Amino acid sequence: MEINDITQRIIGCAIEVHKALGPGLLESAYEECLSFELIKAGLSINRQQPTPVVYKDVRLDCGYRIDILVENSIVLELKVVDEFNPVHEAQILTYMKFSNKSVGLLINFNVTVLKNGIRRFRL
């Protein structure tokens, strides 16, 4: 399956969750429901995927975790914030770099229309 097809399916699942729940819940609730929808859509996922920091060619476990890794290729970072800040973009780009994944989706469920809360990143 192509990366663009996978990201479209992910976005469709996220929209389904947002339609059902709306904004205002905890990030963990959206993660649980989105995981359910992704699996139902036939996608493989890993939740809270450990991501080591690589420092001077040494892998260090510092407790960083990708919210959801889809098809072992797309990093999902979920948020429930008023608006994205540069630190959110830096976070997903760092996770993508350390996990050697070229595509990531930053999804903010705290919006009235979900398409306004999704940003795609490529390395």
Short description:
With 123 residues, the protein is an alpha+beta fold. The chain has one domain.
Count structural domains.
1
- Span from first to last CA? 19 Å
What's the multimeric state? single chain
- What pattern of helices and strands is seen along the backbone? HHEEEEEHEE
The coarse silhouette is globular
Radius of gyration: 14 Å
Helicity level, as a percent range? 25-40%
Question: Approximately what portion of the residues adopt beta-strand conformation?
Answer: 25-35%
**Secondary structural class:** alpha+beta
Strand order of the largest sheet: 1-4-5-6-7
Low-confidence stretches: none
**Biggest beta-sheet profile:** 5 strands, mixed
Provide a count of the helices: 3
- The average pLDDT value, as a whole number, equals 96
